[in-house]
């Protein structure tokens, strides 16, 4: 008789010590489930380390579900699945590229930011970048960024868009070409950054989050990334103000837009 206990892997987590925490988990290497854990059910350390959390989870509910909640039982104090159901999760609706890539085909993930990974995929010779909505509340920003990539397609402004990323039938993000041997912009790169931003403005788009970590300098040019606050149309004044602000952004030393300390595995 085969072992019936499922394999569970925590893919991403959004942990709040004082509120509910959210987990995106993969069951039997195939099914993605979204699990909310009530505050106080588990110690923070256990939630921050995927294998610990998995060893403490109550047995997964049987049946068809993709969203569930773990609460503490009022009588026994034990954690249990207080809710579980099959829900239609929101997805990105702006599907403009012909390529759709299943998230299960991504390999060797290397986390760059909470929702940005360097990954490999059999269709691509070298690693690529995957950016996606870990949780449903991130879908709107990925929708904006996906749309912005359609606007800049062919304009030599951002990395090449390689396709939409799909999870169980819905689009959760995208793959873009990985820029290699880059550095984040400094004030010395001002002319290159100015010309990249001007190209974006030339097609009527305001970036909305210009900072040195969103300007990758390589091969004697600047590539803009991170379009989740992009907007079009933008007024002449808005574009002028954004260009005017560029120099200050390159001089900024606050670390804004850079690496953040995260509380999420793996
Ligand atoms: N196409 C890419 N090639 C290489 N590195 C990238 C690429 N896209 C993103 N990155 C790296 O990941 C970081 C975060 O990506 P970004 O899209 O700016 O996410 P966030 O919205 O979290 O700021 C970037 O600052 C950069 O270091
Ligand atoms: Mg960024």
TrEMBL record:
> What InterPro entries does the annotation carry?
Kinase-like_dom_sf
A Pfam cross-reference name? Kdo
Instruction: From the Swiss-Prot or TrEMBL record, give the protein name.
Output: Alpha-galactosidase A
Task: Supply the source organism for this entry.
Answer: Stachybotrys elegans
């Amino acid at each position: 008789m085969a072992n019936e206990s499922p394999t569970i892997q925590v893919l991403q987590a959004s942990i709040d010590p004082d509120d509910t925490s959210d987990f995106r988990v993969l069951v039997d290497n195939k099914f993605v489930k979204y699990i909310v854990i009530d505050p106080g059910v588990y110690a923070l350390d256990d939630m921050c380390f995927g294998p610990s959390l998995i060893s403490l989870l109550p047995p997964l509910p049987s049946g068809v579900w993709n969203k569930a909640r773990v609460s503490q039982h009022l009588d026994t104090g034990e954690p249990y699945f207080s809710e579980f159901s099959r829900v239609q999760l929101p997805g990105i609706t702006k599907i403009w590229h012909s390529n759709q890539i299943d998230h299960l085909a991504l390999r060797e993930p290397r986390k760059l930011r909470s929702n940005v990974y360097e990954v490999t995929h059999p269709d691509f010779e070298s690693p690529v970048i995957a950016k996606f909505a870990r949780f449903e509340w991130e879908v709107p920003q990925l929708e904006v960024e996906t749309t912005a990539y359609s606007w800049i397609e062919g304009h030599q402004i951002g990395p090449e868009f390689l396709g939409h990323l799909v999870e169980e039938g819905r689009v959760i993000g995208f793959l873009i070409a990985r820029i290699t041997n880059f550095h984040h912009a400094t004030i010395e790169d001002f002319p290159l950054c100015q010309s990249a931003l001007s190209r974006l403005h030339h097609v009527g788009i305001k970036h909305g989050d210009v900072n040195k970590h969103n300007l990758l300098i390589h091969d004697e040019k600047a590539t803009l990334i991170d379009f989740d606050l992009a907007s079009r149309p933008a007024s002449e004044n808005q574009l002028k103000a954004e260009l005017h602000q560029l120099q200050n952004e390159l001089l900024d030393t606050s670390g804004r837009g850079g690496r953040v300390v995260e509380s999420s595995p793996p």
